[in-house]
């Protein structure tokens, strides 16, 4: 039974990553028209509406603790997405995702208790060091710093997502968190003003971003976070750079160097290692 639960969690996490990076490729195509703030607002706002209509969270029956965690969860979602979109406006998608992964990687180190956990996290760390173009004069330092900051909020998202999934229905938590994220991001959108340039075509693209980048993956993450330890989920998400690099290559014609592709291989291997050994641990008798 535990093995089946772990398999479901791993499948949910992988599908979530495919959706997120595919949606990010669509989102980046919206940047020239409405910018990262407008794109983030469209993504989060439409996701919030979709999730609320589908899940119908009983928001008036939540207790103070549930509201507290939903609020932090929602603010984490808004900050993570807004800052990440600002980052990939300046740097390639694959590079941005990899630098952002420093947040979950640090979390994996902090929560590690076995030498194997440290091994896989260290391998992912090597991958991250390899992907950064240290000798390039064209590197956008601001873009890298923004991606790193987004990674910090990604770690918060993992921690709070795990906690909130234990005290309430995950679907209700995601729906409520997205409503809070929308309320947080709207003032930025009004200040920026780019959302006023929205057209029917841009709206449809934004709807696709909302479904694939937020509504579907955040729901899948709740399934995974409710069944996997935070450290296992953190290292498992090291597949994000691979999906990001492939999405950037296929949909945005963003190429990475051979060394950077090697770094992607390191983080993929780290992800495979933690998944396989996580399954063995999960079925061990208590």
User: Uncertain spans, ≥5 residues at pLDDT below 50?
Assistant: 279-286
Q: Main β-sheet: number of strands, strand sense, barrel status?
A: none
Structural class: mainly alpha
**Average pLDDT over all residues:** 81
Helical proportion, percent range? over 70%
Shape: globular
Number of helices, where a helix is a run of at least 4 consecutive DSSP H or I residues: 11
The helix-strand sequence is HHHHHHHHHHH
Radius of gyration: 18 Å
InterPro entries: AA-Vitamin_Transporters (IPR050638), EamA_dom (IPR000620), EmrE-like (IPR037185)
Membrane topology: Multi-pass membrane protein
Protein name: DMT family transporter
Keywords: Membrane, Transmembrane, Transmembrane helix
Quick structural overview:
With 286 residues, this protein is mostly helical. It is 82% helix and 0% strand. The protein contains eleven helices and no strands.
